[in-house]
């Protein structure tokens, strides 16, 4: 991989980290599929940010280094500057990785592609997307057709991650064109799949009514030739509008998003990383009320951000919806929280504590959901630690059917199960509701021949 090198010793790493340049480290494992996927993104970022140094560390082969950086699962990333670790990231999260790299390394340095793609290839009779699986193809088509004008880009309209995406966003905004967008850095499957689907090898890619217009150079040419004005007229035509003046496709998408969860928050950023104080405040209130909710980052999609203001007749963010109805923003939610109205409303709508199981009840249900139940880091196809991988392999070698739960996906389960089982580490294997043990015990039973017989009683 161009721009990415492997670290072999701690001494070598210390020299790199203290060398004066920003350093990004990827701790990986050969058995981890998520590591392989993130490797591709890591390589792209290394090309985009040549002012930083990108190194890989094989986590289990370099335990001394892994211990220094407190690596508990892979993929894991550490971001170093001026000889110090300033941030870390655990898990396969392309968007967060790109954001943190940009933060530590500064602006991208990307060369214009030397070879231009002839747009005439798009009109050929063969379907270039024939090699894609049906699920991915359907997902791409749903994205492309979610709004009349749709842009696949690096980053978001608010924070483009490359100069070509920034240029196209600027043109669309200058022309007054409403558009939806998708950050291709957040999903490598979409990123690679769209290249095949569109037969277009670079980003950004702009679509109009499901048809590819092209990349940055073509959009610039269309603007200079006045062709984008035709697109403005068509995208704003009354035939595609509802009573609110919004595009019918956008209205349908907004309704789908609002109905995504009984409690839905439209916010800046994510619950884990709010991008404004008001969004952070609202998230904290919902967590304090123990309310299960989903969220949408309005910074990731300009069409949703602007359209929802019109649809809801509410001019700011965050916006809280309960069972499809707008409750309000952070000030209203805070006031309702203080005077008890929010709790009463949630109980009235059978949401939150009134609807949720206790943690012990949930743990018992999960443990009993399969005769053989494994609580692990990751899933059987993509384990996120070597111990989980070893237990999965032992069970598969014995031909044992089992279900699993990824404890990295739920912090309450991860911490609660330790107390419930009085077992402090993972993985944990259960049979008919009873704890068998962790990796060492399972491997001992596998070696002695006890594992299959115990799990067959």
Automatic annotation (TrEMBL):
<dbReference type="GO" id="GO:0005634">
    <property type="term" value="C:nucleus"/>
</dbReference>
<keyword id="KW-0408">Iron</keyword>
<dbReference type="InterPro" id="IPR033658">
    <property type="entry name" value="GRX_PICOT-like"/>
</dbReference>
<dbReference type="Pfam" id="PF00085">
    <property type="entry name" value="Thioredoxin"/>
</dbReference>
<dbReference type="InterPro" id="IPR013766">
    <property type="entry name" value="Thioredoxin_domain"/>
</dbReference>
<dbReference type="InterPro" id="IPR002109">
    <property type="entry name" value="Glutaredoxin"/>
</dbReference>
<dbReference type="Pfam" id="PF00462">
    <property type="entry name" value="Glutaredoxin"/>
</dbReference>
<dbReference type="InterPro" id="IPR036249">
    <property type="entry name" value="Thioredoxin-like_sf"/>
</dbReference>
<keyword id="KW-0479">Metal-binding</keyword>
<protein>
    <submittedName>
        <fullName>Monothiol glutaredoxin-S11</fullName>
    </submittedName>
</protein>
<keyword id="KW-0411">Iron-sulfur</keyword>
<dbReference type="GO" id="GO:0051536">
    <property type="term" value="F:iron-sulfur cluster binding"/>
</dbReference>
<dbReference type="GO" id="GO:0005829">
    <property type="term" value="C:cytosol"/>
</dbReference>
<dbReference type="GO" id="GO:0006879">
    <property type="term" value="P:intracellular iron ion homeostasis"/>
</dbReference>
<dbReference type="GO" id="GO:0046872">
    <property type="term" value="F:metal ion binding"/>
</dbReference>
<comment type="function">
    <text>May only reduce GSH-thiol disulfides, but not protein disulfides.</text>
</comment>
<comment type="similarity">
    <text>Belongs to the glutaredoxin family. CGFS subfamily.</text>
</comment>
<feature type="domain" description="Thioredoxin">
    <location>
        <begin position="1"/>
        <end position="106"/>
    </location>
</feature>
<dbReference type="InterPro" id="IPR004480">
    <property type="entry name" value="Monothiol_GRX-rel"/>
</dbReference>
């Amino acid at each position: 991989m161009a721009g990415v090198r492997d670290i072999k010793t701690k001494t070598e790493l210390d020299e790199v980290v203290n060398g004066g340049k920003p350093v990004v480290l990827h701790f990986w494992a050969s058995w981890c599929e998520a590591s392989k996927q993130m490797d591709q993104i890591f390589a792209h970022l290394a090309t985009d940010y040549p002012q930083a140094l990108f190194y890989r560390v094989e986590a289990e082969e370099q335990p001394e280094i892994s211990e220094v950086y407190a690596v508990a699962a892979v993929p894991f990333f550490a971001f170093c500057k001026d000889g110090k670790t300033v941030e870390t990231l655990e898990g396969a999260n392309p968007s967060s990785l790109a954001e943190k790299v940009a933060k530590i390394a500064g602006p991208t340095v990307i060369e214009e592609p030397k070879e231009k793609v002839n747009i005439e290839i798009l009109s050929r009779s063969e379907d270039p997307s024939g090699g894609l699986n049906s699920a991915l193809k359907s997902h791409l088509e749903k994205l492309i057709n979610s709004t009349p004008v749709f842009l696949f880009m690096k980053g978001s309209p608010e924070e483009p991650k490359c100069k070509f995406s920034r240029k196209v966003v600027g043109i669309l905004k200058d022309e007054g064109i409403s558009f939806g967008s998708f950050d291709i850095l957040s999903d490598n499957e979409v990123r690679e799949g769209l290249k095949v689907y569109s037969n277009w090898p670079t980003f950004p890619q702009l679509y109009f009514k499901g048809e590819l217009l092209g990349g940055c150079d073509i959009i610039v040419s269309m603007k200079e030739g006045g062709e984008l004005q035709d697109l403005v007229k068509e995208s704003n035509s009354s035939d595609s509008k509802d009573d609110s003046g919004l595009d019918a496709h956008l209205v349908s998408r907004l309704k789908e998003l609002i109905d995504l969860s009984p409690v839905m928050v439209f916010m800046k950023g994510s619950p884990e990383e709010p991008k404004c104080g008001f969004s952070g405040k609202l998230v904290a209130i919902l967590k304090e009320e123990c309310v299960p909710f989903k969220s949408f980052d309005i910074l990731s999609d300009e069409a949703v951000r602007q359209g929802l203001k019109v649809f809801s007749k509410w001019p700011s963010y965050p916006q809280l919806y309960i069972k499809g109805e707008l409750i309000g923003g952070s000030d209203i939610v805070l006031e309702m929280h203080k005077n008890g109205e929010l709790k009463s409303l949630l109980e009235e709508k059978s949401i939150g504590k009134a609807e949720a199981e206790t943690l012990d009840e949930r743990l018992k249900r999960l443990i009993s959901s399969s005769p053989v139940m494994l609580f692990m880091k990751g899933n059987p196809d993509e384990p996120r630690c070597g111990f989980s991988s070893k237990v999965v392999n032992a069970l598969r070698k014995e031909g044992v059917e089992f279900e699993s739960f990824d404890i990295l996906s739920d912090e309450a389960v991860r911490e609660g199960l330790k107390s419930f089982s009085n077992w402090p580490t993972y993985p944990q294997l259960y049979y008919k509701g009873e704890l068998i043990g962790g990796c060492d015990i399972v491997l001992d039973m596998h070696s002695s021949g006890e594992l299959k017989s115990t799990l067959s009683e």
